[in-house]
Amino acid sequence: MADIRKWFMKAHDKDNGSASKHAKPDSSTTEKSAAAELQSGKAELSGGESTGRRITSKYFASEKQKSKDTTETEELPIKRKSPQDAKESPAKRRSQKDSKESLKVPPLQKLNKIDDNDDDDAVISSSRKNLSDVTPNKKLKSGSGKGITQKPVKIEESDDEEAEGTESSRKQPSGRGRGGRGSSAATVGGRGRGGGRGGFMNFGERKDPPHKGEKEVPEGAPDCLAGLTFVISGTLDSLEREEAEDLIKRHGGRITGSISKKTNYLLCDEDIGGRKSSKAKELGTAFLTEDGLFDIIRASGTKAPPRQDSKKSVVKSVESPTGKSSLKVQAKTCKDLSAGASPAKQKRRTVEFSSLTWTEKYKPKVPNDIIGNQSLVKQLHDWLAHWNENFLDGGSKKKGKKLNDSGAKKAILLCGGPGIGKTTSAKLVSQMLGYEAIEVNASDNRGKSDAKIQKGISGSNANSIKELISNSSLHFRTDQPKHPKTVLIMDEVDGMSAGDRGGVADLIASIKSSKIPIICICNDRYSQKLKSLVNYCLILSFRKPTKQQMAKRLSQVANAEGLQVNEIALEELAERVNGDIRMALNQLQYLSLSMSVIKYDDIRQRLLGSMKDEDISPFTAVDKLFGFNSGKLRMDERIDISMSDMDLVPLLIQENYINYRPSSVSKDDNGIKRMDLMARAAESIADGDIINVQIRRHRQWQLSQSSSIASCVIPASLLHGQRETLEQGERNFNRFSAWLGKNSTFGKNMRLLEDLHVHILASRESCSRREHLRVENLTLFLKRLTEPLHTLPKDEAVKMVVDFMSLYSISQEDFDTFMELSKFQGRKNPLDGVAPAVKAALTKAYKEARKTQMVRTADLITLPGIKKAPKKRIAAMLEPAEDTIEGTGGDTLAESDDENSLDNDYAEDSTNAGKKLQLELQNLKKEGMEVQLDLKGVENSNAKKPGGRGRGGGSQTSEKKGGGRGSGSATKRKR
Amino acid sequence: MLWVDKYRPKTLDQITVHEDVAQNLKKLVTEQDCPHLLFFGPSGSGKKTLVMALIRQMFGASAEKVKVENKTWKVDAGTRNVEIELTTISSTNHVELTPSDAGFQDRYIVQEIIKDMAKNRPIDSKGKRGHKVLVLNDVDKLSREAQHSLRRTMEKYSSYCRLILCCNSSSRVTEAIRSRCLNVRINGPTDDEIVKVLEFIGKKEGLQLPSGFASRIAEKSNRSLRRAILSFETCRVQQYPFVSNQAIPPMDWEEYISEIASDIMKEQSPKRLYQVRGKLYELLVNCIPPEIILKRLLYELLKKLDAELKHEVCHWAAYYEHRMRLGQKSIFHIEAFVAKFMSIYKSFLISTFG
């Protein structure tokens, strides 16, 4: 902030030096200058131009710079940088020379210069007018205000300068004209200083546009910024970024993302010295404030009527050079329009309309005319050119076929979005190579029989389907020796569906046997229907042409049609149609019916309605809805956005609405208003849910709009604003909805609970309801299951718990279910602190007990919700047998039971390792040998076991929280 | 075995709490003219116990031989086939199920299962064709369509089966169904009755009950006998011998909800709302029914609330509870209630305390 301000100040200083020079003489003779201006000759004009240029700062009121050609801009820095007045005069002279030279440069520039001159006039009058009423350009005032303060210091310099400056009398009047502005500004400066400066100081702290919507956005001549390139940085004074972009584009300017040499202005108000500004400084790009921009635009706007007057007067008066130049200008514009204004042309156009649509008329005639994708066209060309060699002549030689891999595919598949020239390029290429193209598209029947026609081409023309192709094919057959050149273009192959039975399969078959090249065209290469076809084709994916490419082509068309459209408007058009050049042409033709000059705004307006549907992701949709500018969206736009994904967008809205600080509430003491808005939004979201039930359950689909309004549009419009984070470390992006995940966890837990409930019912001991089981019984169940493990000695506790479990047919999984259902964040797991040995013993004892219990439950129940239930059950029933084998095997070994449990210990111990490490070590020491033995035995009998242990080991690093689960899974593995 | 199950009366004669109702039912059954029955009353008042005892009275000990099945019904619903899975508990003579588990397809269950039962009627010992009993739980949660279809089938198949309907509130059962049933209201047991039961259990278990302990449990139980017995046993597990001022442990989720309530009371901000949402999700994920969450939350909030606001807050709670039943994603509605409460409470705090 500080350094950029300094930088600005420097600019002021430099400029003010020159500005103040002229302030003096002008104040005396402003009127004269105005009069002189009109009469001033060519040279004077240019002189004025040059001085005027010198006056303009880098920082404000620098619109003159844009009009310079590149040579001038190159020299400009020199002029600007020259600190000494002595040096300035040569520079001035040079600039004068420049301006003389510039007389010879194309008239377009002259037009600009005239504009500048007119501009001065306008400024004088307007500034005079503005003496009384407050002009919005605070910046200017503050700058000039500062200029005044520094005046005493510089005044000598300026005198000197003047002395030198008056060396040529030409300069003077124009200088005055220029200076008129400065003086008027200076007079207001006193007032402007305080406010302007204060404003300037304040900017640093704010992030939103500080005077959002407070300033009146000027209307200017439609192409007053033509040829200028802007880069916007930081926040502006009153405009949102998008608004500023829109404004510039509307006036013919160009916006780019980053600074380059071509950039004319860096638009910024209180820039924070980011990368852009530093680079701008490096490159010497001019800085422009929002007010400066407004000035430029406003100047052009107010000038518009006087410009005409002056032109007229000039033209009328004498054959002054200006008049000549303006004539030239007119000539040029006429050329530009390709004499669109002349009635004759008009007539010609109307005649043309009746004949052809533009899409037909301006179809590319040669492959090189195709916009974009030239490499693909080339590839297509090569493929087609070598087709005969590869497949027909060399068809018998298999070697050649295989070696040439790009030509290995007998057919080619062009894919890409509509309107980007696939069909056109296919046709053109084949035409160029002298092939006769037979096009078969969706309007033809392409069922099996039709595919046989193709076969007919390659030999057996015993087909009933006919005319369309057979004529040419017959023709082809008769001429076969001479012109074996036919190509089949299968257009819209992804549209081959219901009507075209077996279409794709037959197409593949014919590709295999074909003796002519086949070009297939589709929109979506990932279509399911084309899956098999893709293998037989060389695939060329056409890309959308860039908007510049399209704009170029469109402007050619526009010129040829005598339509005046500027480049920016065309680029906008290209962007809006999403790369579809056919659509762009159609739109252009349609627009041309009503107007001969098409501006940016016209395109915008026209295409808003007919905008191509774009797929936007739910996240983008939510961003748009909650974004700063969403207040400006129309209702139907909002509905469209929220309808882009009817399921996900409401969920995302619901998830994120809390995070937004509504911009509609400016001053919110204590956040009451925000809270209120949030309550309303929440209610509206709940409304949306209710409506959604009506839609889904009762199929009231006509309510879908209401649903999206209630669940998306209303909350978003209440709360749209800036997103803020609620938790530390959260990224400031919209979260994905938690509801989906939670709902599925809920579903899972519900199934588990149902499972448990069924088990308990099956025990015939209880007949409580599922809901009661969770809400009321669970606490006690949990206590009964875990409490003994904490308090009683191991064996007793285990026996007690297992008895209880078997009484209620609670399985090991159900035990885990209990744990799962009673798990709350930040609550301690009831199994915490239970010695792993006890847990292991419990598992063991439970398994023992289950051998008797199992059968009963397994017999009666098919588990709900689990599809594989029977298998699992059977497996579960079978496995105890394995256990017994193991047991009997273990009988021979000493303390087999203990070891088994020890084995379990091992798995679980590792989960809360460290805690019981000592105990374990002791055990190991004592029975290390047996453990080894047992492990081997176990590995033989049950291959799963090591896996279980490995898992336990894996969770060693994880926290104790996972311990309960970990042990559960480990034991499950073993089973 | 839990005491709730252990000391559950098995026959109508054993029933102590609603003795008069039990005796009337017994008379009703023994006179062989059992109409459709609709039991309604608060949770934990003994409806289910009565029903089980009644069935036992009807069919003897065979009614206790139940099997649990997870049946799949394939229903032809006009344009498509619907498959519905539901758990049923059945003996030869009765089937018990909770049709509302099937969600909005519950009406197919109601129709289908009754037809199913009508197909295989049991023959009693005297060779007469007997009838089956269908026990439907949670009738008040049945959708309106299901209740309408129930109305028709109740009459159509009345010779084959008797329906015993259980619900908490008869207000959500349609008039038509209520008029077709003998309505039996089961009141929640009074505190004295609960104390009597607890003392009975204590005696059977050979426990020393400090004076006033049982009545404290009864007080806490909110007139739910089940609740009382459960917390009695929880206390027993937690600490025995009892001390007269022993804390009666709350349910885990109740504790959690009171935590949420105090969170809400402490701070009303978007951030807090977000945290509360997370906690509410926890509760929901742990299968606590949303209605119960909302009710309990209101209860906890009211405890600490200024009297001025109570009315308004209750109004909103009822409002959102109603909407929750209409809707599907209960979290939205609970959250809306919390947001509303925060908004009200915050402006109240600021207007009174500045």
Automatic annotation (TrEMBL), chain A:
Listed Acidic residues bias regions? 894-908
BRCT domain spans which residues?
A: 220-298
Q: Which InterPro entries match?
A: AAA+_ATPase, ATPase_AAA_core, BRCT_dom, BRCT_dom_sf, DNA_pol3_clamp-load_cplx_C, DNA_replication_fac_RFC1_C, P-loop_NTPase, RFC1
Q: Which family does it belong to?
A: Belongs to the activator 1 large subunit family.
A molecular-function term among this protein's GO annotations: DNA binding
Record's protein name: Replication factor C subunit 1
The entry's keywords: ATP-binding, DNA replication, Nucleotide-binding, Nucleus
Q: Name one GO biological process term.
A: DNA repair
UniProt keyword Transmembrane helix present:
no
Record's GO cellular component terms? DNA replication factor C complex; nucleus
Q: Which residues form a coiled coil?
A: none
* Quaternary structure and partners: Heterotetramer of subunits RFC2, RFC3, RFC4 and RFC5 that can form a complex with RFC1.
Q: Where in the cell is it found?
A: Nucleus
Positions of region (Disordered): 1-221, 301-322, 879-909, 932-975
- Segments of skewed composition (Polar residues): 124-135
Database matches in CDD domains: AAA, BRCT_RFC1, HLD_clamp_RFC
- Where is there biased composition of kind Basic and acidic residues? 1-16, 61-103, 204-218
Q: Where is the composition biased (Gly residues)?
A: 189-201
TrEMBL record, chain B:
- Cited SUPFAM superfamilies: P-loop containing nucleoside triphosphate hydrolases, post-AAA+ oligomerization domain-like
Q: Which InterPro entries match?
A: AAA+_ATPase, DNA_pol3_clamp-load_cplx_C, DNA_Rep/Repair_Clamp_Loader, P-loop_NTPase
Q: Which gene encodes it?
A: LOC111478265
Does Nucleus appear among the keywords? Answer: yes
User: Know the name of this protein?
Assistant: Replication factor C subunit 3
UniProt key word Nucleus: yes
GO terms, molecular function = DNA binding; DNA clamp loader activity
Identify the GO cellular component terms for this protein.
Answer: DNA replication factor C complex; nucleus
Which positions fall inside the AAA+ ATPase domain?
33-192
